[in-house]
Amino acid sequence: METYAVYLWPRGSLASEIGSDTLFGATCWALRVLGLADIGAMLARFDPPRFAFSSPFPVCRVGRELLRFYPRPLWLDLAPAALNRLAEAGIRENGSQPPKTVRLDLAERAKALSQVGYVSEALFGQIVRGELDATGLLGKTQAQGKQPAEVERSGAVLLTRSERAQIGTSDALDGLMQRQAVQHNQVDRVAGATVEGMLFYSNELHFAAGTGLWCLVRASAADAERLIRPALRYMADTGLGADRTAGKGQFDIELGPAPALPDAGQAANGWLTLSRYLPGPGDWEPGARPLAYRLANLWAKREQRYSSYGIGESSPIYKRRIRVFEPGSVFPMTAAPDICGRLAAVVPDAGDGQTIYQSGLALGVRALVPGIGG
Q1: How far apart are CA 141 and CA 232, in angstroms?
Q2: Could you tell me which of 67, 136, 281, 283 has the fewest CB atoms within 10 Å of its CB?
Q3: Spatial distance between the Cα atoms of 305 and 116, rounded to a whole number of angstroms
Q4: What is the reported pLDDT for 265?
Q5: How far apart are CA 274 and CA 41, in angstroms?
Q6: Of the candidates 130, 128, 110, 112, which has an alpha carbon nearest to the alpha carbon of residue 120?
Q7: What is the largest CA-CA distance in the chain?
Q8: φ/ψ of residue 123, rounded to 5
Q9: CA 192 → CA 186, 197, 199, distances in Å?
């Protein structure tokens, strides 16, 4: 299978979160509408999987170059005992500063690190290869005398000083993927106008100029041209996520070669997911447990274009609730297949010959996780 990069350059705001499962589902809908595949038959026999997506992550245009971000590996959080050791060392090295000041500064930087959602490509590579751990990363966020910090935080992302210099202005990333509450008016059917208590708010995702989203897709070269590329063109016309008819979720979408993915090679002792991941049979060794993870509960609505069961019969509004691992989670796998995970039947066949699936298929990279035996 081949790996490709998909770039989504926004033409407006985004009304709902997009994950790897969203992209997979939108692709299947596009193939069904375009008549390029019998989706029901294909998904019923989707083993091994023919294609899968990573979740989308931020990307920023820097001249002719692209500054890509990846999910923060979730083993980077520092335990309280480790923070105490660092604080004691810092107090000894900074005898001129009160111990309370040293501890507060360290705690604030550790908290900021835990709140970061994404790290730059350069930092991600160092972390995955085991060249940079949580302690080292925390140390790089501190200025050394007159020298600024080697690693800087900008909103939800972490990047190196040289990458920040590439961007040029200090506020170029400040609006990257920023959520804002937007007021809406609900019209009363009787009054024909908005009356008291009919206002409501929704969260929308807004992008800074020159920024967007990017993800990976893995498929055979034939499927990439025959299925994935036409589906992406369809998505560029119709949009992604909620409120598409109101102009939300509109993107210019490009499919191109993927960058060289960071990889720990033979030294790897774990596998880091870049997608929402639902483990499949045989993914892990018996008795194995996740090394570091975050879970998400998905309880999605059915697509509005999905037909009801019949005249006078209403179809379920929500799909079955499932729990998946979020991108950045890491597992004790060192020899993972091209695509891990599985599909879940979230609305089983109710006699109409139609089954709705939620994608838990995942792409990932091999990683060297500190403190874990090989």
Answers
A1: 39
A2: 281
A3: 36
A4: 87
A5: 27
A6: 128
A7: 79
A8: -70, -40
A9: 10, 14, 14
Between vectors from CA 307 to CA 303 and to CA 310, what angle results, nearest 5°? 145
- List C-alpha distances in Å: 244 to 55, 235, 251, 271, 304: 20, 11, 11, 35, 11
Determine the Cα–Cα distance for residues 83 and 106; give it in Å rounded to an integer.
8
Spatial separation of the C-alpha atoms in residues 130 and 123, rounded to whole Å: 11
Q: What is the DSSP string of 288-338?
A: ---SB--EEEE-PBPPTTSPPSBTTBPPPSBPPPEEEEPTT-EES-SS--S
Beta bridge partner(s), residue 7: 214, 254
| pLDDT confidence bin for 200, thresholds 50/70/90 | low
With the C-alpha atoms ordered 131, 134, 137, 142, is the resulting torsion angle positive or negative?
negative
Task: State pLDDT tens for residues 42-70.
Answer: 998 898 999 999 999 999 888 788 999 99
Instruction: List CB contacts of 37: < 8 A, sequence separation 6 or more.
Output: 31, 227
Give the tokens for residue 2: 């081949």
Task: At 315, list the tokens.
Answer: 């179809």
Read off φ and ψ for residue 151, nearest 5 degrees: -125, 135
The first and second tokens of residue 64, run together, are 């002719």
The mean pLDDT of 357-372, rounded to a whole number, is 89
Q: Is the Cβ–Cβ distance between 203 and 180 less than 8 Å?
A: yes
Report the predicted TM-score, pTM, of the whole model to 2 decimal places.
0.85
State the pLDDT at residue 328.
95
DSSP 197-245: T-EEEEEEEE--TTEEEEEEEEE-HHHIIIIIHHHHHHHHHH-SSS-GG
H-run or E-run covering 162: helix 161-167
pLDDT of amino acid 170 = 45
pLDDT average, residue stretch 168-178: 55
Judge contact between 337 and 99, C-beta under 8 A: no
Question: Is the pLDDT assigned to residue 261 strictly greater than 90?
Answer: yes
**Whether the Cβ atoms of residue 75 and residue 292 lie closer than 8 Å to each other:** yes
pLDDT at 145: 66
